[in-house]
Amino acid sequence: MVYSLEQLAKFFGLAFSALLPLVNPLGDALVFLGLVGDAPRAVYRILAWKIAVSTTIFLVVIELVGTALLKFFGISLPVMQVSGGLVLAAMGWGLLNREERAPTPATAPSDG
User: Fold this and answer.
1) Buried b or exposed e, range 27-56, using 16+ CB within 10 angstroms
2) Average pLDDT of the residues of the chain
3) pTM of the shown model
4) Rounded Cα distance, 51 and 2, in Å
């Protein structure tokens, strides 16, 4: 099959816009700040740049090789969708049912 550049751009744009909510850049920014903590601005910039580049490379590779990889392993798309849903459900269930950790002295609020 030969696709025109216009069709490839259209398909790539549709796939990218479908994957963007899964990546959730606005929600992940809060997670990023929580994991990095109090750091100099330069550290934030370097880490954000590395994460952005890695994520972009990952999404492009999956976009280009994903279908061939699924066919190679004999996995159908509905099976992948169901297994992905089960993984997300298990992760959500684990977050809902995990026990609260006691605060460490360094993070505990002071009474003074």
Assistant:
1) eeeeeeeeeeeeeeeeeeeeeeeeeeeeee
2) 82
3) 0.51
4) 34
